[in-house]
Amino acid sequence: MIASALQFSAGKGVNVVFDCVGGPLFEPCLKTLGQLGRQLNITSVGDRRVCFDLLDFYHRRLTLFGVDSRAYDTEACAAILERLTPGFESGALKPIPIAKRFSLNEAVQAFTQVNEGTLRGKAIFTFSATGA
Question: 68 and 9, same structural domain?
Answer without folding.
Answer: yes
